[in-house]
Design brief:
Helices cover about 50% and strands about 10% of the residues. With about 180 residues, it is mostly helical. It has one domain. A three-stranded mixed beta sheet has the order 1-3-2. The protein is globular and about 40 Å long.
């Protein structure tokens, strides 16, 4: 039986860059104060500090963004920092469930704990709002389980699973 070993941010970066730098001209880089996507030669996905979870979250956003969106800084989306009002938080919840469902699959594959993120520290988010958002993430997860992940997400998930679940030694169970 194989055992999952949680991946750290450095290994997630190395895996992403090995998988997508040549084929998609995109690299993953930690150490940022705030996550950010910068199109270029190569394009760069920046994630917070050295947090594996932040890296997986930002990769999930990249996997959702189509070719057109990947031509714009931060995929052409708005970002409101902490302190969002109720309307902006509702807009966040509306667009964030799909990438967070992908992030959940990535986290499961590589042994990193996942919980949905509201990305609004100190906000007064009701239990009903949080529950509804968690349900939307779960609904997207079910859709992906049924129909499959977007192609780049599926490719990265396979690589995460391969790296985080080492094979048993060929001698396991021999001679018992």
């Amino acid at each position: 039986m194989s055992v999952k070993h949680p991946l750290d941010a450095a290994r997630v970066v190395a895996l992403f860059n090995r998988t997508f730098e040549a084929s998609e001209n995109t690299v993953l880089q930690g150490g940022a104060e705030e996550p950010y996507y910068a199109p270029g030669q190569p394009s760069c996905i920046f994630f917070r500090a050295d947090y594996a979870r932040s890296a997986l979250h930002e990769v999930a956003h990249w996997c959702v963004a189509g070719a057109g969106r990947r031509r714009f800084p931060d995929y052409g989306y708005w970002y409101s920092p902490d302190g969002r009002d109720a309307a902006r938080q509702a807009a966040f919840f509306a667009v964030e469930a799909r990438p967070q469902a992908i992030e959940a699959a990535f986290c499961e594959a590589c042994g990193v704990d996942f919980s949905p993120s509201v990305d609004n520290v100190g906000a007064d988010i009701s239990a009903e709002q949080l529950s509804a958002f968690e349900m939307r993430v779960a609904e997207w997860s079910a859709v992906f389980l049924d129909r499959g992940l977007p192609s780049r997400a599926a490719q990265f998930l396979r690589e995460l699973e391969r790296l985080s679940t080492p094979s048993e030694p060929l001698s396991a169970g021999v001679g018992r």
